[in-house]
Design brief:
About 35% of the residues lie in helices and about 15% in strands. The chain has eleven helices and nine strands. The protein has a six-stranded parallel sheet with strand order 3-2-1-7-8-9, sandwiched between helices. A three-stranded antiparallel sheet has the order 5-4-6, covered by helices on one side. The protein binds 2'-O-acetyl adenosine-5-diphosphoribose.
Length: about 260
């Protein structure tokens, strides 16, 4: 599965790196993934806690789920995998983009700046009824009164606020997709590396980014504890835990990267 150039491509003039991360990258910080054994989806039904219909049926259950995850994410720390990506971004500047499916904010806490949170954030809340701008919110709504939207109340409505998470059946933010697309197009024809780390490749459209990157000439690398559903789409599979595998991958080029 070896490719010509591989990560050495990053040494070349104008090289670009697009990284996609998933829950596995935060596993060694102490956050549970979704589909591993003991993953979140073993204990919770996706349709109950991660769909608009589930929220309509039982908003208290949904808020309890995300409030617990908010509380957990606040108590853990970024790990060396997060930090390696922040370090590589410092070298590449705007030739780097990080697309994360994670909603835990750990990449930003590790120092990453060019981050696109395609599945939203645990630490933002929005309205379930109006187009109120999502706002920062670290509160936990574990029991009792659920938060309501002031904006709707002013107009005589009573919509509930909800986590700013992209649930199943919902569209990704088109601005995010456009930004990713624009980055890939700028990378086409240049030395271009795409890395996916800590993701099972089970959820689209994230799982399809490797195809788009490949079609634009990227060298593609998967860093994962176990094979993913789309492993065959990658030129190279580095099997390992991201907290050690990501720093190792980049340290190979440490002396040459700009
Ligand atoms: P998954 O739980 O589906 O996959 C996590 C992957 O990380 C698995 O393939 C593991 O083998 C791997 N893994 C576990 N520990 C690891 C480690 N220390 N280092 C490297 N890899 C490790 O999580 P995602 O792919 O992120 O969506 O799931 C995608 C989306 O599905 C999530 O964003 C979430 C979920 O439903 C929403 O909630 C909208």
């Amino acid at each position: 599965m070896e490719i010509a150039g591989g990560i050495d491509l990053l040494r070349e003039e104008g090289a670009r790196l697009l990284v996609l991360t998933g829950a596995g990258v935060s596993a060694e910080s102490g956050l549970r993934t979704f589909r591993d054994s003991n993953g979140l989806w073993e204990e919770h039904r996706v349709e109950d806690v991660a769909s608009p219909e589930g929220f309509d049926r039982d908003p208290q259950l949904v808020w309890r789920f995300y409030s617990m995850r908010r509380n957990q994410a606040k108590t853990v720390e970024p790990n060396p995998g997060h930090r390696a990506l922040a370090e590589v971004e410092k070298r590449l500047g705007d030739r780097f983009m990080l697309v994360t499916q994670n909603v835990d904010g750990l990449h930003q806490r590790a120092g990453s700046e060019r981050v696109i949170e395609i599945h939203g954030s645990l630490f933002r809340t929005k309205c379930s009824g109006c187009d109120l701008e999502p706002f920062d919110d670290h509160a936990a709504y574990l029991e009792g009164t659920l938060p309501t939207c002031d904006n709707c109340e002013k107009r005589g409505g009573n919509s509930l606020l909800r986590p700013d998470i992209v649930w199943f059946g919902e569209m990704l933010d088109p601005a995010h997709l456009q930004a990713i697309d624009a980055f890939m197009r700028r990378a086409a024809g240049k030395p271009f590396v795409f890395i996916a780390a800590g993701t099972s490749g089970a959820v689209w459209p994230a799982a399809g980014l490797v195809n788009q990157a490949r079609s634009l000439g990227a060298s593609t690398i998967l860093v994962n504890a176990e094979p993913a559903e789309n492993t065959a789409r990658f030129h190279r599979f580095v099997q390992g835990k991201s907290a050690s595998a990501l720093p190792a991958l980049f340290d190979l080029n440490a002396s040459n990267n700009r």
